[in-house]
Amino acid sequence: MNAQQLIEIITPEAYQRLLYAVETGKWPEGTTLSQEQRDACIQAVMLFQSKHNTEPEHMTIAAGGEVCFKSKSELKQQFQTKDENEILRVRTNDPAQDNAG
Question: Distance from first CA to last CA of the chain, Å, rounded?
Answer without folding.
Answer: 63
